[in-house]
Amino acid sequence: MSLSSIDMKDTMKNELFSTQENVFAKEDPSDEERAIAQANLFALLADQTARHTMGDSSSVPVETARELYASICFSIDLYLQTSHRSIESLQNEDARQMLKAAWAEIEAQIKKGKALLKKILLLSPKSVTISYEDTINELKKFFKRYDYRFFAHEIPCAIDYQLSLPASENLKGIIYVNDYMHRLSIENSFCSYFNHSLIDALLHSISPDYRQLLINIYEPVAANAIGLAMLQGNILALDISQAQRDILLHCFHKLSTEEVKAKLIGAAHALCAFLHIRDACTQQYIQTTALNLYPRIQDALSQESFENIFLTVADPTTKTDSGIFIDHAPMEDEELRALIDEMNSLAHTRDKIAMTKKHIHSMRDIIDVLGCCFWEQECLLLFDLLTGNELNFLKNFIDNQNETFTSQTGWENELEKYISLKEKK
Amino acid sequence: MDKDFALIFYDQHKNQMMTEIKKCNELTGIYSLSLNEEQICLLLDARRQALKDTGRIEFGNGILKKLIEAFCDCPYINQENYASVLMDLQDLFYYFKGECLEALSDDELIEAMKNYFNTTAQGSMDYLAALSIEELCDSDTHEHSDEPFEY
């Protein structure tokens, strides 16, 4: 599933639906316009109150009326924003129809939210905290509890899991929940590039009881990946040694604020390029995560220690899964072309495999070779050589391609079959 | 903010409600009961205060018309006490409405109040006011005592 279906525009747009008072706050209506708009909103409130009490009661507590009114304002605001209308529409259009149109938009948002939740569940890290699990369970309940016709602005579930880049507290109802889930799906998608046992080991280095902690899973993974991108180290191994921390410390000491920020942005770009992340929203998220490291780096510089930012993977046994193709320099283009020509002249698959093992040491080259030299079933023998980490890398590479992506050899289809067969076993 | 919010609705509908309550005189006339403009005005002001005191908002024409229609045939109401009884009933209605946590509909609450008013309470507003919400909610199954209420 591709994350490219959600673009940054959505997130930016969502920021606009901030409060129930937005209906009036974003424009500067005259007193007369305000009075007419308010009268129409109040007429809707009377309708909604009658619906809410099912005609049983002519009066409601002020608190109930206020919530119903907040829901109307949220819904109308959403309608005005999505249909690019101004507050003047409240004078000229039938407010009841506007509310119905707003409900249709909310229903579309609910559909979008359910798809986001599905994506989150699909890409959930295997190592999670209790607060993550609780929040996922609560998000599932949200869609059962969400009563958008009367309380569209409410968030009837407890969202405890802290994101690395939190959703705006000004957002309400389904807009907040979708924004939260959008961010969480980006974090999960990023974590899916890495071996789960490495993530688990990294979290263990924070605390052996990390499951009990209110920590974000993505943040330490991203920080180490960014650090390794700066060091031009083995990004997928996620491990930063004391010696590497010293290099970073030495390097940052020499840089100005602007230079540090530029270096962080550069590392984020390098990381996205390495992982073949093309989705603009995910790229932006990683870049902001990198920039958010700056205050921590500044703090750490004064203490001469990066131990709390760039972590060493706790359990050394988990480092063995980094594979033979990962994190080595790709071949020169001409050299690779010559190798591909030579491999294509070979009749036996096992000879191709032997040449691959001998000459290829980077995932980028593996992808090129798979696309030119290994046809259909031949791929399976090569996949057998790869570690889970490396297979995961290939899977993420495919997921990040356009839907129209097809290789000359069809290795991507073979990989899908290979992985699903392996999962069944 | 809450108070302003509630009062906006009252002010918007006051004239309309005056007309509606005046129309009720046609119905209550057969029981020799009527309200003049000043009494209606006082009742509507009392409604405003009762809503404010109980923290409620009312839409449409209010509960007063329903109270008039329900209680106009009560044997304990005459022209002399008509306006003051309505005022007390209105106050009690909003009080009980809040106390019952929306468990009773308007019609159910009015019916329960009327049952007590016409039987055990024998027209006593003090008796009615002293009832607990549980007693009122239980009004359907309540076997009203034949013993008159002692003042």
Please give the largest β-sheet of chain A. Answer: none
> Which percent band covers the strand fraction of chain A?
under 5%
The structural domain count of chain B equals: 1
How would you sum up the major sheet of chain B? none
Secondary-structure-based class of chain B equals: mainly alpha
Radius of gyration of chain A: 26 Å
- Overall average residue pLDDT of chain A: 84
Q: What is the straight-line distance between the termini of chain B? A: 42 Å
Number of strands of chain A: 1
> In DSSP terms, counting alpha (H) and pi (I) runs of 4 or more, how many helices of chain A?
20
Could you estimate the helical fraction of the residues of chain B in percent?
A: 55-70%
Instruction: Return the domain count of chain A.
Output: 3
Q: What best-fitting shape of chain B do the alpha-carbon axes yield?
A: globular
How would you classify the quaternary structure? Answer: heterodimer
The count of strands of chain B amounts to 1
Q: What is the terminal separation of chain A in angstroms?
A: 23 Å
Layout of strands and helices, then pairs:
The complex is a heterodimer of chains A (425) and B (151).
Chain A: H1 8-14, H2 22-25, H3 31-52, E1 59-61, H4 62-82, H5 89-92, H6 95-123, H7 130-145, H8 148-151, H9 173-191, H10 196-206, H11 218-231, H12 242-253, H13 257-274, H14 280-303, H15 333-344, H16 349-359, H17 363-372, H18 378-385, H19 388-399, H20 411-424
Helix pairs in contact in A: 3-4, 4-6, 6-7, 6-9, 9-11, 11-13, 11-14, 13-14, 19-20
Chain B: H1 2-28, H2 37-54, E1 56-58, H3 64-71, H4 82-99, H5 106-118, H6 125-130, H7 133-137
Q: What does this protein structure show overall?
A:
The complex is a heterodimer of chains A (425) and B (151). Chain A is mainly α. Chain A folds into 3 domains: 1-192, no CATH class; 196-320, no CATH class; 333-424. Chain A has 20 helices and 1 strand. Chain A has helices at 8-14, 22-25, 31-52, 62-82, 89-92, 95-123, 130-145, 148-151, 173-191, 196-206, 218-231, 242-253, 257-274, 280-303, 333-344, 349-359, 363-372, 378-385, 388-399, 411-424, and one strand spanning 59-61. In chain A, helix 4 crosses helix 6, helix 11 (218-231) crosses helix 13 (257-274) and helix 11 crosses helix 14. Chain B is mainly alpha-helical. Chain B has one domain (2-137). Helix content of chain B is 63%, strand content 2%. The radius of gyration of chain B is 15 Å and the shape is globular. Strand 1 of chain A pairs antiparallel with strand 1 (56-58) of chain B, so a sheet runs across the interface.
